[in-house]
UniProtKB/TrEMBL annotation:
Family stated for the protein in its record: Belongs to the glutathione peroxidase family.
Keyword vocabulary terms for this entry: Oxidoreductase, Peroxidase
Magnesium found in the keyword field: no
Organism of derivation: Actinoplanes teichomyceticus
GO biological process per UniProt: cellular response to oxidative stress
Protein name: Glutathione peroxidase
Gene3D superfamilies: Glutaredoxin
Active site: 35
Entry-linked Pfam families: GSHPx (PF00255)
Any GO molecular function: peroxidase activity
Length: 156
């Protein structure tokens, strides 16, 4: 099983079957609107704008498990992201990334690894569905290592 065998509810309704991203490079980030790292939305959008035409898909997964920093409704989260950061990449419904309610996507991403440490932890998923890299929350979306990892996996 890979993440492409999982589906996740979209923030604005409906379900996203992650199989639609098979063959793309997927960057999955647990996000929050009231976190000191929230300004990373800007750099996430820039990364998405730079590489989406080459096959990068960015999926933001709002999560309220860290300091209650994503308390909003789906409508509030969507509006916050669009208005304040111009977010156009897909956002999933608010999900749990740790504990017994961990979403199946995060069960696949984490495997036997440690729990998510905080908001804005990043997973780079290769086109075949394997996790190619995991980056700490403090690693900015324009970090040279993160960008190099994405570029290496994208088709030329």
């Amino acid at each position: 099983m890979t993440i492409f065998d999982v589906s996740i509810d979209a923030l604005t309704g409906g379900t996203t079957d992650l199989d639609r991203y098979r063959g793309s490079v997927l960057l999955v980030v647990n996000v929050a609107s009231r976190c000191g790292l929230t300004p990373q939305y800007d750099k996430l959008q820039n990364l998405y704008d730079t590489y989406r035409d080459r096959g990068l898909v960015l999926l933001g997964v709002p999560c309220d498990q860290f300091g209650h920093q994503e308390p909003g409704t789906a409508t509030e989260i969507d509006e916050f992201c669009r208005v304040n950061y111009g977010v156009t990449f897909p956002l999933a419904a608010k999900s749990e990334v740790n504990g017994p309610g961990r979403h199946p996507l995060y069960r696949e991403l984490i495997g036997d690894g440690p729990d998510i440490r905080w908001n804005f932890e990043k997973f780079v998923v290769a086109p075949d569905g394997t996790v190619a890299a995991r980056f700490d929350p403090q690693v900015a979306p324009d970090d040279a290592d993160l960008v190099a990892t994405v570029e290496k996996l994208l088709p030329r």
